[in-house]
Design a protein that fits this description.
Number of domains: 1
Largest sheet: 6 strands, parallel
Structural class: alpha/beta
Strand order of the largest sheet: 5-4-6-7-3-10
Helix content: 25-40%
């Protein structure tokens, strides 16, 4: 399987690679990859590597041990315990809303590594941090889990569509309506605020994935500015109040039931009145445990709240050249 950018497809075709429309990848059949195709080879934990393994009938590789020596800090260990408690309490997910620089990636991956009954893991993140996620997994060990790391723009590749339906699909929103989402044990949405606009194709695809997932981790230091921007957390918020919200319509009805200042505008668009008390109520729903024996649905810390942590933390984050850059 090859990861070939659109602009480089001519090179791939000239080097005897063919397009596999069913899986949305380029395929080269041969014993050795030609030099011209080497930059496009599938990377660890990529969608292409997953497809390659499935088509070849290969079993999941043995657990890869830790390649680094990452040690969790106290606040990260606390968050790992909170995630485990939320899952044990049958919450549909957890919002990890720590401020920038507090190590949400490491926290999230340790929490998943500790989930012994979890096999399939999807990590959705901005393209710029795909390499960071891959290196973190390699440094901490993959625990033998079936992992795919991909950016938000590629979510459509996960959906199964019949040949008849494929001919009618004209957009990613159409794919979200007609496609079938895979069943996954855990999904991580890094920078989850990218789904704050529920009308975008990205948000619709993500919502359909969430509906089929066993547990979700939403990671964001800026989750949303008002209740309407938290529609992607609908299953979590509804669960906290004893309700259910499978789709956007359910979430809108939930907002009305909770009297969060949500109304229909002049052209039918949902609007928020802007009362600060609404935001505080939602914040309490997410970060305050509803009872002494219950678990919160999220956690939020700032650098100044953590003993010994610098207010400004500068870190070098690895980036990864795409296939075109490697070529």
């Amino acid at each position: 399987m090859l990861d070939v950018p659109f602009a480089m497809r001519g090179i791939a075709t000239a080097s005897q690679a063919r397009w596999d429309a069913a899986h949305g990848v380029f395929v080269f059949e041969g014993r050795e990859l030609p030099p011209a195709l080497a930059p496009f080879s599938a990377l660890p934990y990529s969608w292409e590597m997953r497809v390659q393994r499935e088509l070849a009938g290969q079993a999941l590789a043995r657990p890869a041990g830790a390649a680094g020596t990452i040690q969790l800090r106290a606040h990260q260990t606390e968050a790992v315990r909170a995630i485990a408690a939320a899952r044990a309490a049958k919450l549909p997910g957890f919002l990890l809303a720590d401020d920038v620089g507090l190590g949400k990636t490491i926290t999230a991956w340790q929490a998943i590594r500790d989930m012994a009954d979890v096999s399939s893991v999807l990590i959705v993140c901005p393209l710029a941090v795909v390499a960071h996620w891959r290196r973190t997994i390699q440094a901490m060990g993959d625990a033998g889990k079936d992992i795919v790391v991909m950016n938000y723009e590629r979510l459509g590749k996960l959906f199964e569509v019949s040949d008849a339906a494929r001919k009618k699909i004209k957009s990613k929103k159409g794919l979200a309506r007609a496609g079938t989402a895979p069943e996954l044990d855990v999904i991580v949405f890094d920078e989850s605020h990218r789904c704050k606009n529920p009308t975008t194709a990205r948000s619709k695809l993500a919502a359909k994935l969430v509906a089929n997932a066993g547990f979700c981790l939403w990671l964001s230091a800026t989750a949303g500015q008002n209740p309407l921007e938290l529609s992607y957390l609908a299953p979590l918020l509804a669960h906290v109040t004893g309700a259910r919200a499978k789709d956007l319509k359910d979430f809108e009805e939930w907002c009305l039931a909770q009297k969060l200042g949500v109304t229909r505008g002049a052209y039918g668009k949902w609007e928020w009145s802007g009362a600060r008390a609404d935001c505080e109520r939602v914040r309490a729903m997410l970060f305050d445990a509803p009872g002494p024996r219950s678990s919160p649905a999220g956690i939020r810390r700032r650098p100044e709240e953590i003993v010994g942590w610098p207010a400004l933390n500068r870190m070098l984050t690895p980036i990864e050249l795409d296939a075109e850059g490697r070529a």
